[in-house]
Specification:
103 residues; mainly beta; two-stranded antiparallel sheet
Length: 103
């Protein structure tokens, strides 16, 4: 399959978009807020980096602030499906499935 001028052979339902955006998140049912950086996002999931270790299977609520005042922040519920330590940066990459986009 060709997408624009490039060949696209990935078997994902949604294309990943690389982004570099600060995010805040909380563990569902808890009040503490944490910060991280979203590295990529698709229609089905996202990848973020954070110094906070979050256990596999945890449900988090993520807010990605909009840089445009006419566009709302992205607020989503995400189930963590992969946790990868990043020892050089003293952080963790959290991959997750977006289960709900909130209004």
């Amino acid at each position: 399959m060709t997408l624009g001028n490039r060949s696209y052979e990935e078997k994902r339902s949604f294309i990943r978009m690389k982004i570099d955006a600060m995010v805040s998140f909380s563990i569902e049912g808890k009040n503490e807020r944490y910060e991280g950086r979203c590295k990529n996002i698709s229609g089905a999931g996202l990848l973020l980096e954070t110094p906070k270790k979050i256990p596999l299977g945890t449900r988090i609520n993520v807010i990605i602030p909009s840089e445009n005042s006419t566009i709302d922040n992205l607020s989503a519920t995400v189930d963590i499906t992969r946790v990868t330590p990043q020892p050089d940066q003293h952080s963790y990459e959290l991959a997750g499935v977006i289960t709900q986009i909130k209004p």
